[in-house]
Amino acid sequence: PTRSLFDEPLAIAVQGLGPRQQVTLRTSLQDETGKLFQACTHYQVGDNGELDLARCPVLPGGSFSGLEPLGLLWALQPQKPLWNMVKWDVQTPFVLQLEVFEGHGEPPRRLLAQAQHERVFLRDGVRRVPVREGRIQATLFLPP
């Protein structure tokens, strides 16, 4: 899918690669202040030319290690140290950029594939109602 709720698991898989091909996957997103966050990791594709992050452990040299289907999401790091990811407006999604590069190393080699995925914070149909009563300010989210 091209869109999912922020707290839902996301299955990441790449098809159409060469058998046992070495690739680098990179995710990136910009927060609401324009700060860039990225994660990358190295994989070796299976014999069938498919890479499923739920079944394929990463190779050394990336942002995390082991078998981590959502590692490319939780391992996002700021471009500059000590930056925090900012999200003020839950009505707009984070847009996650996913890229697949040939081989390993820096800088990345040839771009093989890319996709965008929106991580939304509100399910479709949810209404956002501002609440102001005296000194109390809040937001009420009502399901459809």
TrEMBL record:
Residues 7-133 form the Acyl-CoA thioester hydrolase/bile acid-CoA amino acid N-acetyltransferase domain. GO terms for molecular function: fatty acyl-CoA hydrolase activity. One of its GO terms (biological process) is fatty acid metabolic process. Belongs to the C/M/P thioester hydrolase family. This is ACOT5 thioesterase.
